[in-house]
Structure formats: C-alpha cells, structure tokens
Amino acid sequence: MPRRGYNPDIITYTELIKGYCMKGKIEVAEKIFVKIQESGLPIDHILYQLLMKKYFKMGALAAGSSQLTAEILITELSQV
User: Fold this and answer.
1) CB 27: neighbour CB atoms within 10 A?
2) Other CB atoms within 10 A of residue 59 CB
3) Tens of pLDDT along 16-64?
C-alpha cells in the first residue's frame, strides 16, 4: 500500500490482521503487528483483543508460543 502512495492507518492494519487471523495465518498477522509497532502508529485495545482472541482459540497462550503473545498479554492486562 505505501508503494501506491497510501499510508495505511490503524483501522486498515486491524482489518488486515483480522482477515489473516480468520484464515488461520497468525504468523502473517504477527508480522503486520510488528510493522505497526515499527511505524509508530498507536496500537489500540481492539487490535490487542483481536490477537488475544486468536491466541486463545489456538491454545497459544497456554503453550507460551511467542514473545509477541506475552507482550500482548502484558499490555492488555496492564490496561485493566
């Protein structure tokens, strides 16, 4: 998208991640999440909840599958 002169916003990225999560492509969703972090866009609770829901469905939290999983969990819990 940036190559075409369009800079995606957090809503666009969230929808992309949602689509990849729905298709079971969590690795691609994680790469997009990292890209958002690197871009400096603020990450909202909706995106965190979307990823958390997918991790729970996959059983990834119980297994401690990734550093990103832990980061999301810590960030989400700190906002409670």
Assistant:
1) 9
2) 9
3) 999 998 998 988 998 999 899 888 898 888 888 888 888 778 776 555 4
Please state the length of the chain: 80
Residues 6+ apart with CB under 8 A from 76: 45, 48, 49, 52
pTM: 0.70
Give the ranges where 1-80 is alpha helix by DSSP (H).
10-22, 26-39, 45-58, 60-63, 67-78
The two three-digit tokens of residue 76, written as one number: 């989400």
Residue among 45, 46, 44, 51 nearest 66 (CA): 51
Rounded to whole angstroms, how far apart are CA atoms 80 and 70? 16
- The angle subtended at Cα 19 by Cα 73 and Cα 57, nearest 5°, is 45
pLDDT surpasses 80 at 5:
no
